[in-house]
Design a protein that fits this description.
With 202 residues, the protein is an all-alpha fold. It is 75% helix and 0% strand.
């Protein structure tokens, strides 16, 4: 009876296990696949992006620069999971790797720096979290920007991904995660208003 009960609720068990594991176990960013994927997207932007090119070229190259790698990774993931002996559990592993609350630790560090009056260092940490000028922010401004960034990051990288996984499966959640990683990587190479990034905003 226990086996039949587990099989009937396998999807829910996998989902809850992935969520609670992501909250309790933090993988090092040095060894996390997200770092490799971010570097890949950043290298693509540095290779393809031409700020003086026509807007139509930038839109086309930006669209292909994201869609082709993202589709390739998603299709390869689908192929691996399809031939796996326990495909549902591999789908749960994909969810675990996609869920991210790393901004929480950065926010705690910034709050600690603010309390110890290390405003310059706090701004430096915040600069890696937001796409805006932080040099003129006061202590209150740093705190507000940290809260806003942490809330938005948690919403996008945790709750939305979990919802997509429940509604559409691991492949849609993975594709959305790749979109977020690409957006963050490209913002380090070009302004977010660039025509090259228009396809990501859409």
């Amino acid at each position: 009876m226990l086996d039949s009960l587990l099989q009937a609720h396998e999807g829910l068990i996998i989902f809850l296990l992935a969520v609670f594991t992501s909250l309790s176990i933090r993988l090092s960013t040095v060894y996390h696949p997200n770092l490799v994927l971010s570097l890949v997207f950043k290298a693509i932007a540095e290779r393809v992006y031409r700020p003086k090119s026509a807007p139509s070229y930038q839109l086309l190259s930006g669209t292909l620069g994201f869609v082709l790698p993202a589709l390739t990774i998603t299709v390869l993931t689908y192929a691996i999971i399809s031939f796996a002996f326990y495909p549902n559990w591999l789908g749960g592993l994909v969810l675990f790797l996609c869920l991210d609350i790393s901004h929480e630790s950065r926010a705690k560090r910034i709050m600690s720096l603010i309390k110890s009056k290390q405003k310059v260092t706090a701004r430096a940490v915040l600069k890696g979290m937001v796409a805006r000028d932080v040099e003129k922010l006061t202590e209150l401004g740093v705190c507000k920007a940290t809260i806003d960034s942490t809330a938005l990051h948690t919403l996008r990288h945790f709750f939305v991904i979990a919802l997509l996984y429940l509604m559409l499966g691991p492949y849609c959640a993975l594709f959305y995660k790749l979109l977020l990683l690409c957006d963050h990587a490209w913002r380090q190479v070009m302004p977010p208003t660039s025509r090259f990034m228009a396809s990501l905003a859409a």
